[in-house]
Amino acid sequence: EERIKESAAYIARRNLFATGEGISATRVATSSSTEEQHEKKSRKVAIRESAERLALRKTLEETEEFHRKLNEDKLLHAPEFVIKPRSHTVWEKQNVKLHCTVTGWPEPRLTWYKNHVPINVHTHPGKYIIESRYGMHSLEINNPHGYASKFEIHFVDQFEVSFGREGETMSLGCTVIIHPDIKRFHPEIQWYKNGVLITPSKWVQMHWSGERATLTLAHANKEDEGLYTLRVVMGDYYEQYSAYVFVRDADAEMPGAPASPLDVECLDANKDYVIISWKQPAVDGGSPVLGYFIDKCEVGTTHWSQCNETPVKFARFPVTGLIEGRSYIFRVRAVNKAGISIPSRVSEPVAALDPADRARLRSKSFSIYSLRQLFSTREGVVPGPPSDLHVIEATKNYVVLSWKPPGERGHEGVMYFVEKCIAGTENWQRVNTEIPVKSPRFAVFDLAEGKSYRFRVRCCNSAGIGEPSEATEATVVAPGRIIPTRNTDTSVVVTWTESKDAKELVGYYVEASIAGSGHWEPSNNNPVKGTRFICHGLHTGENYIFRVRAVNAAGLSEYSQESEAIEVKAAIAAPSPPYDITVLESVRDSMVLGWKQPKIIGGAEITGYYVNYREVIDGVPGKWNEANIKPVSERIHNLKENMVYQFQVAAANLAGVGTPSPPTRSFKCEEWTIAVPGPPHDLLCTEVRKDSLVLLWKPPVYIGRNPVTGYYVDVKETEATDEHWRSVNEKPIANKFLKVSGLKEGVSYLFRVRATNQAGVGKPSDTTDPVIAETRPGTKEVEVDVDDNGVISLNFECDQMSLDSKFVWSKNYEPIEDEFRLAFDTKGGKSKAAFKDLGEDDLGIYSCAVTETDGVSSSYTIDEEAVPLKSELAAELLEKGQVRFWLQAEKLSGNAKVNFVFNDKEVANGEKYKMKVDHNTGLVEMIMDKLEANDEGTYTFQLQDGKATNQSSLVLIGDVFKKLQNEADFQRQEWFRKQGPHFVEYLGWEVTADFFNTVQIVCKVGKSAKRFPFSFLQRRLDTVRICAVLSTNSLSATELKIQSTAEGIRLFSFVNYYLEDLRVSWLHNDAKIKYTDRVKTGVTGEQIWLQINEPTPQDKGKYLMELFDGKTTHTRKLDLSGQVIFADIKGNFTHVFSDRARILGGLPDVVTIQEGKALNLTCNVWGDPVPEVTWLKNEKPLIADAHCILKYESGKSASFTMTGVNTIDSGRYGILVKNKYGTETSDFTVSVFIPEGEEVSQPEPSKGDKKKV
């Protein structure tokens, strides 16, 4: 069609140009016989010809282009984006429109994609709108539900209720996470105290790092006590978090002195006085506060002067004697009979100025109102009475009056006279008789304490004194009552009723006391306004009583009546959300969910869970639907097959339904057909100790194609990566519990469990919460007891119980169903489980857990029906050579019996055997005077205590018996020898420490007369000399020193002269050193040395050299511990710990892998120069091939890859790194296993192999 249109246009233009209108032609013969043609053209024709030539040229160009179009090979070109779609950042649920421009011939077709999937507008009607026009294309994404521009603000690692002390520096911090994170749009961080915005000052500093907000109290005072709130503002939206801060009193300089006053401020300032107010402290030091001293200091100086000579009891005081126009700061000190408190925090500066002058300084311009008043007054008119006279400050000694000027007054202005009279009389007296007052405010002093006064004011000018104003009246203050209610385990909410007649209240002090103790402690050091306060820092389970007293300028009121006693216990609240929600099984129309119990159950047992679900279509979630009306456990029914769902779970207790959990990730409802089992669930860590714990779990809901045959338990440290997961058990276990041993004390661990069946190992369970291996203080174990009747019982005690705590006994970590075999008795914090008829059916692991505690639990294993023993049968020698056989039981009742058996024959008490049984201590013993040849054999003690029995045997045969017999005979002979004169210490020698090194030969004799004959025979004197020389050399050894060598380091000591008989031993960290090619010892001349080549960090520690001279051991020590080892040596080996070849980590100790899988291990190495890397298998170099791939990249990363492992690949592997400064190795074991039910594939022997028998 396009070609037809262009052809028709071309023919029309050609016909148009073919017409000859407006042209005439003539021919003229020239002299040269040539014809010359002349044309006559009009102006119109000339212009038309010019236009036609231009049109013709254009036509030719169009024709050429037309012919080019007829040749499609020259016209075709691929689509090209002239304008590409750009990225957009929009609010969630907001509409967005994408644009692009595309060229190409033929005209290209455009398809929009989302996540590599074409968008179909018919599948989502109304959501997507696609338009294409003139090569411009657009995609509009609509959301019928609209959009919201709300930021999500979360507080992490927030500050809790804090307790500080005066003078300390306190810091409150909180990490803020804001989503979405928009660049150049920063939040506004605001801090509030008791609802008042805090501004930075020398006492308070605020900091925002972009992620964490911090408020620092540089010098905490009681004024800083209150409720602190962090508010994060993002546009019109904000979130906030609050916590209370308590500030305790600082220690008084004098014992018994009161605490410092607080909130010192200036209430009224005039040119000759300033009224100071403050709040009384909550702590009086044990004796009543007698009054207060007020100090002043001129701004710019450091000199403080006391304003009052005697203490004032009222919490307000007028300071006089000020210099007009100067600024002052003030502080207050409390005093009692023990002494004076530390000063309060200073007040804000205040200037001594007349209020009228201060107003003129603030604003020098006249207002319209003042001009009207100025022109409306008439000179010579007596002013009228002032209006609105009232008392703004009232104390026992003075009052402050305030009023409004009269409407009618003279042109020159008015002044005021103040009058007073005692209430109930009309005897008015003028207060300011000499000088009238200019400002409409005045302080009246010198009032009699305890009397009530009335006041009035008169105006005066040049025309006279006006009529008095209306007189004032008096006021009183009264206290209220108190009611406590439960809050948390350590706090109580206290409320009270404010008296209706209360006037000018500053606040309230709350005190708490344990019921019956009579000792009261203040709960707040800063008076709290309002009638509600939360008392923190209480002891859980204790009964407390409370009282309140009000405080105003006149002082502290009487205490309110004491409240009723209330136990500190958490109030019942809704539980927190469950977490770690996962799918345990999925079928066509239902799914089984699993989750972890809420961390906060709200003080009441959880009665059930509510589950909500919603469909997710193309990533867009729908509306939430309730899966259950009543609380359910796990399975969710009536779901659609192949539909994607999200879930949320809420826990419920007696207080109600808690907050739902966040939506889970999307799960597809489809029939599971995998052969391996699903993940186990409900993992629980109990009996946590410093080196072990017991892990419990429930079997998987989905078992796969075959029944579950066992479980694997995996463990790793919390901070370690997923590569460090290792299996605790090499073979699967059938039990649903396992005691994990070998943990490191203080280390945090994570655990998970995998189920296995004939098809293989299934998906691992969710990990447990982090568990720290530690034995908490006060941890107790289950103990076994046997009463006088022979009844065996298990006993457990707990001192951390609450009112709702219960003892829960179980057997093999399953609930005990047959309660007829056990009798349970619980009294207070003790529980007892007694066996009624102990038999083989009662063998197993018995555990006891205490609910509503922090994991208090213990267990005891009963292997057989036996009397528990503290120690097995053993033999020992007595002083006279007698042999004592003994054992000790945990406890024996009075009816316990013991049979003594020798070589299967019972022996009785007599001359040869003397037997004894102590029922109180459980000690059983048998004593034989002498061991003879026929006493060789087996000795057995058989115990019977009620229905419980046990026995223990000791075998004395062969060399064991002969050794014991010889020792008994020697002991007997020694005893007889010592009955008369004998050598206590045999002949010996010692070298004195004098200059001559004298050798003394001595012995010690026992049980001898004062004088007895003796003789000394001189033999082997050379040996004595040698020993003396050795002793002298040992004493002359110098202290150990260290020296650097080309190979490493050398420890050495010098002696005067060395003999071979001197024995030298070296120890490292109290262990004898094993000498190798790297560690050698020797003697050079008089130098005794220890050479350590290529030292490593493991060589740090304490070194000890022992010199034994035949009698005495002499030692020399050198400590090479710490981070600055060998710091004093500047030799060539200083590079040992920096440039030596090292393995930085990454390799496990044991690798267990299934046959046929691929094994890939990587580790990091270091060294300067770059070390050489060698892989080893069974201590032989490993050669790389297609099966074993070895890589070494950039001199830092060494990798080991083995494709398709087989059982022949099992063995001991290692890596060796080496450079000129040293070497280092790291070993690991590879274990290849074959899944059950599969045949072991043996490698086919080659033709050259021969069978060997």
Automatic annotation (TrEMBL):
Keywords: Cytoplasm, Immunoglobulin domain, Muscle protein, Repeat, Thick filament. Residues 260-355, 385-480, 481-571, 577-672, 679-778 form the Fibronectin type-III domain. Residues 79-115, 144-232, 770-863, 1153-1231 form the Ig-like domain. GO terms for biological process: sarcomere organization. Signal peptide: none annotated. It is found in: Cytoplasm. Its main location: cytoplasm. GO terms for cellular component: M band; myosin filament. Residues 26-46 are annotated as: Disordered. Gene3D superfamilies: Immunoglobulins. Pfam families: fn3 (PF00041), I-set (PF07679), Ig_3 (PF13927). One of its GO terms (molecular function) is structural molecule activity. It comes from the Eukaryota. This is Myomesin 1. It comes from Chelydra serpentina (Snapping turtle). The lineage of its organism: Eukaryota, Metazoa, Chordata, Craniata, Vertebrata.
